[in-house]
Design a protein that fits this description.
Length: 144
């Protein structure tokens, strides 16, 4: 028995103030004898058709919502992977900048040249910006 038919018949049993199993047995018996569950042109038959139309309409809505949810989940997973990749790239960049800063600082100590001083400043600034980029998105989510 379909879930739709069982719910319909339980509802009808409640309206008639009779036991569901008793009503179900009557419908089963009618179906065995006449090949139809409900008497032709009866209120049961008309109401069941209405229930079925409503059920199908709601099922279509549910199916569409499930499809939308699946799309949203797929988009979320794709975006999350992209963010993780970008975070990884930025972390690698921070390490590279830090290493380059140390090399430039060593060169500056040896030569005390403004070129190497500027190079240290550039690596320092780039490292700070990369760290801000790495932290920035998280900070924005916390303030929302």
């Amino acid at each position: 028995m379909s879930e739709l038919r069982e719910r319909f018949e339980r509802h009808q049993a409640g309206l008639l103030n009779i036991d569901y199993e008793e009503l179900r047995d009557q419908f089963d018996h009618h179906e065995e004898i006449f090949g139809k569950r409900y008497v032709t042109f009866s209120d049961f038959e008309k109401e069941f058709e209405l229930w079925q139309a409503c059920w199908n309409h709601q099922q279509t809505i549910i199916d569409n919502l499930k499809a939308q949810l699946n799309n949203m989940e797929a988009c979320y997973i794709e975006k999350k992977k992209r963010v993780e990749l970008l975070e990884s790239n930025i972390k690698n960049l921070v390490v590279q900048l830090s290493n380059n800063y140390e090399v430039a600082e060593d060169e500056y100590k040896k030569n005390a040249d403004s070129y190497y001083s500027g190079k240290c400043d550039a690596f320092d600034l780039a490292e700070q910006l990369a760290c801000l980029a790495l932290r920035g998105d998280r900070d924005q989510h916390l303030t929302r």
